[in-house]
Amino acid sequence: MLLEFSVGNFLSFKAKTTLSLAATSIKEHIDTNIFSTERRDLLKGAVIYGANASGKSNFVRAMSTMRRLVLQSFDQSSTDELDVTPFLLSTGTEKSPSLFEAIFLIDNIRYRYGFEVDDKQVHAEWLFEAPKNAEKPMFLREGDGIEVTRNFPEGRDLEERTRDNALFLAVADQFNGRIAKKIMKWFDNFITISGLTHEGYKGVTFGMLEDKQTSSKLLNFYKRLDLGFDDIAINKKPFDAKELPNDMPESLVRQLVTDLEGAYKIDIKTIHKKYNDQGKAVGDVEFDMRSQESSGTNKIFNISGPVFDVLNDGGVLVVDELDASLHPLLTLAVTRLFNSKQFNPNNAQLIFATHDTNLLYYGNYRRDQIYFVEKDQYGASDMYSLVEYKEEGKTIRKDRSFEKDYIEGRYGAIPFIGNLSNVVTEWQEK
């Protein structure tokens, strides 16, 4: 369960910026949008708005970058670069490390873990544990030094085994550290996906459809969405090199045969009813999912696997451009899964970036779940929630029309288009 995520000096985020899923004291949607732990009430997610190039995707990328660095750190060599880009529009930050920090709950214990890294090495790293209210350090890393406290015995004698470009937490995990393993598992359930390039996620969907325990949930979800088909058929067969094009270069064929040895080709078909002239169903017709169904149907299918996987495990799902290619009602249906006690019994959380302003009205989001991102005159992104936004010194009331106010620019974080008629006139005069 995620409480906070922070990033600083990374891509367009110059200053440390935080998204919090700790519920504030406001009273709207208490029964659906929050859940209680022994520590405090938490939000089931957040929605991020902003103009194009404002930094929404960069914030999602910060989350995916932290996850990647944590899970892949130990597998890298000492010469590998970390692929981290700081805020480059300031002389004060362009050569400084980037900061990533997450605060989360595991077994009702609060952990705060973070690090500062550049493309070459880890400059700082820290882990704090709070079984009750007060934090206690587990380990602190600064430059070349790593201080392991008595609260983290699994990290002892591993200091010298840690490369400059490796995270100490990942090293402790490799040596079977109890706490490190729990934290690594938490990051493994901290999933980030793209709503634009979603082809790579359909393997997760296939796997869930092959499992009897999870396939019924997905099929029922598809039927609720009224996507136009009645059922799905999956055809899975071993890779056969004979099916490759005849004009493919021989060297490429040999490489594919080697790379795809033991792999399977999976075809997905949607089942549609066929009717006679009297409107009576007379049989079924199979459509190829990829070529004969809409891009929106393909997207729903591809991302439904990760969505329900997170719902089952009670993890965190972060999606960039969730609404791309989707009808607003389909986007709404996905978001409502996380506010449903039926579909979300394990309190999974959904964070997503979108341009779909309909959700500001129909989505039933609390003010502390709505975030806006915008850039200042120096190209630096800032992020703030609607509950933090002040108008004439007062917070925005819950009965305001959030969608209308946002479109009118009342909360910022929208593009400044200017007078388009002037643009057309100038173009015609050339």
UniProtKB/TrEMBL annotation:
Membrane spanning residue stretches: none
Family annotation (SUPFAM superfamilies): P-loop containing nucleoside triphosphate hydrolases
Domain ATPase AAA-type core: 46-360
Keyword Cell inner membrane carried by entry: no
Domain of life: Bacteria
GO terms for MF: ATP binding; ATP hydrolysis activity
Gene3D superfamilies: P-loop containing nucleotide triphosphate hydrolases (3.40.50.300)
Keywords annotated in UniProt: ATP-binding, Nucleotide-binding
The protein's name in its UniProt record: ATP-binding protein
Record organism: Zunongwangia pacifica
